[in-house]
């Protein structure tokens, strides 16, 4: 069994000004809490961001927000990860090549979580949807984009993980299984690419004030949790050449670890 990527900590992980200038970063789940924060952090430091997500209107709002920053013009690519096929991911990679001319990084920020429940109460269709978004989509998109990433002298794939002490317990069902599989996939991909130009990283955020968190912990005071901005900046940092020393590592943002 592949061990998870070892943990690492960095003081104030965020990209330097203009450190992503000229780079193209593809972000899934771009209109969600973490995806949006990552897109803004990448754009502020000069990247052209490709905003991939299911709902067009939130992507358009984010597009306008990025343009208002004076950042490079982003690209929007609507895609429903629940039903996307291998051909759909190949088409996405082709569109990035045609529209942007290159791809320097992918941040897998998309996730699907539908609440806590015992395994016997999970509908099979829901289980499959969660695996499709949380595990199959990162594999299919990464595989489709690897030829583009290998054309760069430095590129990165960033996987967003979750705390195994939490998702490995009762009632986390399909989401916990998908995150465990994603951690294993990140480790496997790192071993297969560690001598090449494609860097593999994982990100372990601290508890954030997001819709997913509210669904899992609806009784807690959300104001006690930080906004996704710090995790978004950390994800953007991992896409930059400055993060090369963290190749094959999980950047741990949890407090007190």
From TrEMBL:
Taxonomic superkingdom: Bacteria
SUPFAM superfamilies referenced in this protein's UniProt entry, alphabetically: NAD(P)-binding Rossmann-fold domains
Keywords, ordered alphabetically: Oxidoreductase
InterPro entries linked to this entry: NAD(P)-bd_dom_sf, Sc_DH/Rdtase_CS, SDR_fam
GO molecular function, one term: oxidoreductase activity
Classification via PROSITE patterns: ADH_SHORT (PS00061)
One Gene Ontology term, aspect cellular component: membrane
Keyword Zinc-finger: no
Statement: the UniProt record of this protein carries the keyword Oxidoreductase: yes
Family statement drawn from the similarity comment of this UniProt entry: Belongs to the short-chain dehydrogenases/reductases (SDR) family.
Name of this chain's protein: NAD(P)-dependent dehydrogenase, short-chain alcohol dehydrogenase family
